[in-house]
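Fold this: GNAT family N-acetyltransferase
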Amino acid sequence: MFAWAKSHVHPGWPATLGPLRCAGGLVTVRPVKLRDAAMWSELRLRNQNALLPWEPTAPGSWVQRHQRSNWGPLFSVLRSEAKRGTLLPFVIEVDGEYVGQLTIGNIQRGAVRNAWIGYWIDSNHYGNGIATAAVALGVDHAFGPVGLHRLEATVQPTNDASQAVLTKVGFRREGLLERYMDVNSRWRDHILFGLTVEEVVGSATESLVRLGRASYA
């Protein structure tokens, strides 16, 4: 049995990742907090058109689901899953401002040591390397303190921006998952991307720095 299982302390949680500087500013990734309600609601509502095409179908309208009052129950679930060691829910900050979220989910231990990674950021910050920096920080954390061996990500074939983020961090395309997920009330194909710890030379953040896509603060 893993030592963390005996102590009921999940490895790598809670933790603050970074900072890492990119064109968009100083990127930090930190655990979600109960006081994030107002910014979470504001960003999700304002970015409906940017996010709705890529996110799983859920009950109720987008506006109903993202009212400020919904954050408390959602936060409780996220915190519970984090304490159980199955999920790492983070906020992406740029220069101290909440601009999105990064999540490492479905964490599996034993002989697999696998998880998926997902992310979103405010459309006002697109194209500045913020998502790439945040994902690189998440990868290093997952392969370091969390002790995982493999990360996966799924992206719709038409989501070029998200595919570019994953490719810059080192993920490889592994195949097409046909009718994989119910998104915006239709079953959508997704491309499966994968990355294992052996494929990371040094660290994901070091690779970005070497390529001139980021720098250390």
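The chain is about 30% helix and 35% strand. Residues 17-211 form a domain with the Aminopeptidase fold (CATH 3.40.630.30).
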